[in-house]
Design goal:
- This protein is α/β, with parallel strands linked by helices and about 220 residues long.
- The protein contains 10 helices and 8 strands.
- Helix 5 links the parallel strand 4 and strand 5.
- Helix 6 packs parallel to helix 7.
- The longest helix has 15 residues.
- It starts with 7 loop residues before the first strand and ends with a helix.
- The mean pLDDT is about 95.
- The protein binds 6-(ethoxycarbonyl)uridine 5'-(dihydrogen phosphate) (O7E).
- 6-(ethoxycarbonyl)uridine 5'-(dihydrogen phosphate) binds next to strand 7, strand 8 and helix 9.
- This is Orotidine 5'-phosphate decarboxylase.
Length: about 220
């Protein structure tokens, strides 16, 4: 039914209205493997939106709070978030003690931790890019479940993925940010996810847009 590479599709559901979020999540769920919810939707509607999206789609929901604090605060954020979500995204630049605090909470709840390395926007080349390989090494050493690396720079995606070799990759940048899907699919495999937001939820027919991407994967 779908393409050869079988890379997974993660919908970035950054709308700010509960009804719209649930409608788009339901409409696209046939073509989506996982749903990423972040500050826009949670701040607009509350953490319970995670349970509502899970109930209405039966999909895994990953919470994207890019947590970046000292260990004890990270632990509190992870505890509250992982009472709802299947996984949590945190920043790697805060260091291994802060990431480990989240990992400890997640392991106790059998949930996933995904660490950001290099981000996809142009500004990521100013600071983050310089330490992205080191963060990928830390992710490998700590045995986190997944890492985030950019679809806007496929050569960097490849390099970072080769360092954190046991982690799955979730990669944003295809669609609105200009990343090229086929370049990215050359790097990713069946454990990895392409993250797409606006190119699906801002389309006048989100279901068709999700289908269009999924059949290429
Ligand atoms: O550009 P879009 O609309 O397809 O959405 C991309 C999503 O990925 C959006 O939620 C944004 O916040 C997120 N993202 C990036 O775009 N770049 C990054 O480097 C990292 C993320 C991200 O989600 O980090 C955690 C996966």
């Amino acid at each position: 039914m779908y393409g050869e590479s079988l890379v997974k599709l993660m919908l970035a559901l950054d709308v700010m209205d509960e009804k719209k979020a649930i409608l788009i999540a339901k409409e696209t769920s046939e073509y989506v493997d996982s749903i990423k919810i972040g500050y826009p939707l949670v701040l607009a509607t509350g953490l319970n939106i995670i349970d509502k999206i899970k109930e209405s789609t039966n999909k895994e929901v990953i919470c994207d709070f890019k947590v970046a604090d000292i260990p004890s605060t990270n632990e509190k954020i992870a505890e509250l978030t992982l009472n709802h979500a299947d996984g949590i995204i945190c920043q790697g630049f805060v260091g291994s003690d802060s990431v480990s605090a989240i990992l400890n909470v997640a392991r106790a709840k059998n949930k996933k931790v995904i660490v950001v390395t290099e981000m996809s926007h142009p500004g990521a080349t100013e600071y983050l890019q310089n330490v992205a390989e080191d963060m990928a090494k830390m992710a490998d050493r700590l045995k986190v479940d997944g890492i985030v690396a950019p679809s806007t720079r496929p050569e960097r995606l490849k390099e970072i993925k080769s360092i954190a070799k046991d982690a799955f990759v979730i990669s944003p940048g295809v669609g609105a940010q200009g990343g090229n899907l086929s370049d990215v699919l050359n790097v990713l495999n069946e454990n990895d996810y392409v993250i797409i937001g606006r190119a699906i939820y801002e389309n006048e027919n989100p279901k068709n847009a999700a289908k269009k991407y999924k059949i290429q994967m």
